[in-house]
Amino acid sequence: MISVVIPTLNAGRTLPATFLSIFDAAVEGIVSEVIVSDGGSTDATRQIAEEAGARFMEVERGRGQQLRAGAEAARKPWLLFLHADTALDAGWTNEALAFMKRGSGAAAFRFRLADEGFNPRLLERLVALRCALFRLPYGDQGLLISRELYDEVGGFAPMPLMEDVEIIRKLGRGRLAMLKTNAVTSAERFREQGYFRRSARNLWCLSLYLRGVPPEKLVERYG
């Protein structure tokens, strides 16, 4: 029913939690295949993926390219794109199945950070506001999309950055639903770089991209 596509690059520390969050769905037959689209990992990513029963692909580095290659290899009528540091909350399949009964469409999950305190909760509220006003979820919120609609909009562009924003723009707000289940993402970069600094950098890169700056020029700024 669902092909899960996970782009990876040295994701050995976080990938097990991502797999664990879709394990029950795989046992129940809701997730029929898991594809790890790897951009050249040198850690234990491949071993972890293969031991979990996932299909491991080595592709050209770049998240857009990796997502696109994984989707091309997928065989099921629904695609679920997950980052390798994101895990879906328990019970996500109930909401996903209810959405999939519509027959076609796209949906993203609710953003949540794996951290405690004021800063992560504030950021989560700001992301929720952005999604409510602009229907602009990022890739760390996952993307559940029918193969039919994915092909219709041309899929992920082979971009090194902003591939998530680009496909959401192609979908348009009328074809994107926001689900209530949390997609819990690692807060490591926010803790290392500071919540304000990291958030400001993300917003600045988004604004530059929307003003026409090529993604290739944004990669170094994004970090």
Task: Summarize the structure in words.
By secondary structure, this protein is α/β, with parallel strands linked by helices. The protein has one domain (2-222): Alpha-Beta Complex (Spore Coat Polysaccharide Biosynthesis Protein SpsA, Chain A). It contains ten helices and eight strands. The protein has helices at 15-27, 45-51, 63-73, 92-100, 118-134, 147-153, 163-171, 188-193, 195-210, 215-222, and strands at residues 2-8, 31-38, 55-58, 78-81, 86-88, 106-113, 143-146, 176-185. It is globular and about 40 Å long. It starts with a strand and ends with a helix. This is Glycosyl transferase family 2.
Biggest sheet architecture = 8 strands, mixed
* Number of helical regions: 10
Q: Roughly how many Å is the radius of gyration?
A: 16 Å
Question: CATH class, anyone?
Answer: Alpha Beta
Quantity of strands, as a count: 8
Number of domains: 1
Order of helices and strands: EHEHEHEEHEHEHHEHHH
The helix fraction, in percent, is 40-55%
> What is the CATH topology descriptor?
Spore Coat Polysaccharide Biosynthesis Protein SpsA, Chain A
Assembly form of the protein: single chain
CA-CA gap between termini: 35 Å
With strands numbered from the N-terminus, the spatial order across the biggest sheet is 3-2-1-4-7-6-8-5
> What portion of residues belong to β-strands?
15-25%
The average pLDDT value, as a whole number, equals 95
Overall body shape: globular
CATH superfamily: Spore Coat Polysaccharide Biosynthesis Protein SpsA, Chain A
Q: Segments where pLDDT lies below 50 for 5+ residues? A: none
Helix/strand structural class: alpha/beta
Supply the CATH architecture: Alpha-Beta Complex
